[in-house]
Amino acid sequence: MKVLIADDEVYICSLIRHLIDWEGLGLTLVGTFGNGDEVMAYLERDQADILICDIEMPGMNGLALMEQLSREHPEIQLVVISGYRNFEYALSALKYGAVNYLLKPLDQKSLNDVLRAIVTKSQQNLTSERVLERASARLQFLDCITKMEMPGSLEEINQRYHFNFTNGLFDIIFVCFPGSRNEINQLPVVCRMFESILRPKLQELCHEFEIFHDSPAAMCVLLNYDAGDEKALKVLIDNILQSSIVEISCKTQKKCYLGVGTPQKSFSDIRRSYMQARIVMAQRLVNRNQRVFYADESTENDFTDQRLLTRQEKDGLQRIVEEINPSLVRGWVDALFSSRAQQLQAHPWLYIGCSVQAAWHLMVVTDKLDAEGGSQPAKLEEFIAVAESCETPEDLRMELSALIETEINQNLSSKLDNVAAYAQGAKQYIDKHYMENITLKSLASGLGINPSYLSVLFKNEMQMNYSEYLLSVRMEQAKKLLRQRDKNLSQIANAVGYDRVSYFGKLFRNYTGLKPSEYRRLHQHGLGD
Which terminus of the chain has fewer Cβ atoms in its 10 Å neighbourhood, N or C? Predict the structure, then answer.
């Protein structure tokens, strides 16, 4: 660390130089100065870590210097040395960041103790920064694992992400802790405990490894170990994992399931092992007696790119949401899984894949309906964590059903406050434009909401659907025109929105019980309605 000394008395500067244990503390003197102006001039062309400064100096004194340094060079550690015992001097020095205030005559031990404390704290801060930088860089690497390509060579990855990978085998283990939605917030604690159990065991096997917390209920373990007898390594890994499972079960009474990808000789293929581990771990849904599942070369690894829901299934889900009909949710979810029962049994990862895609489509639908909230990505991420913590297919069905029902009840039903406004808006439009070709779609478009949703709102508010109300408005207007007797039936039909007189006549008779001509004759004879 670089040290500056500022004192207008030359012999004091010389004394300080001889009192400090430069070598023992790892300090270097880079300049002595007679006032603050000289110090600031030096700092314009170079830097320093520590300033040992007197208060009373000609020109810019010590307090003025410290005030300027606190603004322009706050990183410099300040040590004040003065023969003045005035408390105000000490108070001002501390205000501007001085770490200590020493009085003349100087004591060698006190001076070196103060400097040693500065050096120690600086080293600790530097170590902490490096540890945080290393941890942050390594944790960011999980994003690289999930991508199609690795960012550079093994040497570049080591340097950029602070790893020490060597040529050998690379493998991924995916760990899942099953639990209910209410337990999601507790599972990270279990994950941390399992990590503390697993780390010391992996240190004996691996050149390098890292544990990533992929979600609140899941962990991803990256291994790098020697290539050799892979059967023996598999036995060793299995023993480590099985013993860790037993230990976490004894400590927390929690189950955990592990999926192990196939070892990859090239680090660029690590994503394949990652996908295999996630896929094979889904075997727990159909085989809960086993805890560790090993992938093989036949394990499929492209499930994230598949379109798992049919157009008919997506349309069905959209109708349920738009019509605000939670009573149909469980039937839709049951049909989703029942229709592909054999496929799900053969490929259990489809349970999670279908559930996640259904949740994703649900978020798309609610977003299009302009549902309140705007937190769809966070909701989807939360559901993925819940899905990955499910232990049985029935758990998945219940969680997916609960998500859909929650979106219907919380998001769409929150619009019920606007029922009267939407319904009245539609009513007013019909009252004014009854003679035009009005459809539910055009009506909803004018109000900026979904047609199915408008249909439900209008009926709830008006106690009749929009077409019944439109008919009543047209027929009442037709009755008015018939009583006026200045238009023929064809003109009246056109005036209330009908091209054909015969169709108008049929609707009028169904509405009033009379033909239009009969209604007109009755009014001519003063019989009224």
Answer: C
